[in-house]
UniProtKB/TrEMBL annotation:
Composition skew (Acidic residues), residue ranges: 1-23
Source taxon at top rank: Eukaryota
Residue ranges, annotated region (Disordered): 1-37
Designated name of the protein: Troponin T fast skeletal muscle
Length: 37
């Protein structure tokens, strides 16, 4: 992978983590957080 591809993948993971945090905050966590594969 080139450096640019690695940066794009890292940005995607960061965006997904932020979206999950926003969704889970209002609710008590009943299940373990999902780990992207």
């Amino acid at each position: 992978m080139s450096d640019e591809e690695v940066e794009q993948v890292e940005e995607q993971y960061e965006e997904e983590e932020e979206a999950q945090e926003e969704e889970e905050k209002p609710r008590p966590k009943l299940t373990a957080p999902k780990i992207p594969e």
